[in-house]
Amino acid sequence: MSSSTLPPWADIVAHIKFFGPDGTPATINGEPTDGFGEFKDADVKKQIVDALADLYENSPSARGVLDEISAAQELWFFATTGGSGAFTSKGIVGFNIDQTTRTQFMGSNGKIQSDVLQDAVIHEVIHAIYGWDDLIDPTTLQSYDVPGAPPIDFNNPNFDHIGATQRLATS
Ligand SMILES: [Zn+2]
Q1: Per-residue pLDDT tens for 64-86?
Q2: 67 C-alpha vs ligand 1 centroid, how far in Å?
Q3: Which of 14, 26, 64, 142 could make an SS bond with 149 (beta carbons 3.0 to 4.6 A apart)?
Q4: Ligand 1 centre distance from Cα of residue 10 (Å)
Q5: What's the confidence (pLDDT) of residue 63?
Q6: Are 67 and 75 in contact, with CB atoms under 8 Å apart?
Q7: How far, in Å, CA of 97 to CA of 114, rounded?
Q8: Gap from CA of 20 to ligand 1 centroid (Å)
């Protein structure tokens, strides 16, 4: 069966690999894998794949980036005990699932919110596939940390990577 006859998600997920269970190549997409941690717990892989499947189903912008994954652009995850991060445009994400459950932020309702796995995963996947910096303004294309840059429109739908942003009324 050729890959073109597979349903889209099955075709994509076949090219999402985890260091350890899916092999330990010496290089991935040209990057040496020295120091890459192996995923020892099969449940972590399942949680990340399930999060990506959910995003693919529910978020058009997440679907856009995940549609880039193919035989030509594999996505690899390796385990890290430090902060999660990505090799930009290399299709490689270092991920610490424990960090996700520890990250909290102030919500618009004034209550502390916990980070969600989908958000943490797609954030790093966007770095790994598109190579975008954090918080690029969709209109000005400037990063949030450029001195003197105009305020960023975080209400822009392009920031809605998990399809769950509450749109603020502007008048
Ligand atoms: Zn980032």
Answers
A1: 999 999 888 899 999 998 888 99
A2: 20
A3: 142
A4: 27
A5: 93
A6: no
A7: 13
A8: 24
Q: How far apart are CA 107 and CA 52, in angstroms?
A: 23
pLDDT tops 90 at residue 37: yes
pLDDT of residue 160: 61
How far is the centre of ligand 1, averaged over its atoms, from the C-alpha of 170 (Å)? 27
Alpha helices in 3-160 (DSSP H): 8-13, 42-58, 60-66, 97-102, 117-130
Predicted pLDDT at 56: 93
pTM, two decimals, is 0.74
Helices (H), 14-80: 42-58, 60-66
Structure tokens of 110? Answer: 């004034």
Q: In what order do the strands lie in the sheet with 16-18?
A: 16-18, 75-79, 92-95, 85-87
Q: How remote is the CA of residue 145 from the centroid of ligand 1, in Å?
A: 13
